[in-house]
Amino acid sequence: MTQNNEDCLALDALPVRPQLARIWQALPQARLVGGAVRDLLMGRAVSDFDLATPEPPEDVMRRLESAGIKAVPTGLAHGTVTAVLEGRGFEITTLRRDVKTDGRHAEVAWTQDWREDAARRDFTINAMSCDPTGRVHDFFGGRADLKAGRVRFVGDAALRIREDALRVLRYFRFEARYGRGARDATTVRAVSAGAALISGLSIERVWSELKRILSGPRVGETFALMEATGVLRVCLPELQTEGSAAVRRLEALLASGAPANGLLRLAALLQGAHVEGGNVETAVKRLRLSRTEAAFVMAVCDGAAVTPRDIQGDADVARLLARVPREVALGRAWLARAQAYEKGRDEPGWDGLLKTLETRRVPEFPLAGRDLLALGIAPGPEVGRHLAAVHTWWEAGGCVADRAACLEWLKRRLAA
Question: CB–CB of 186/151 below 8 Å?
Answer without folding.
Answer: no
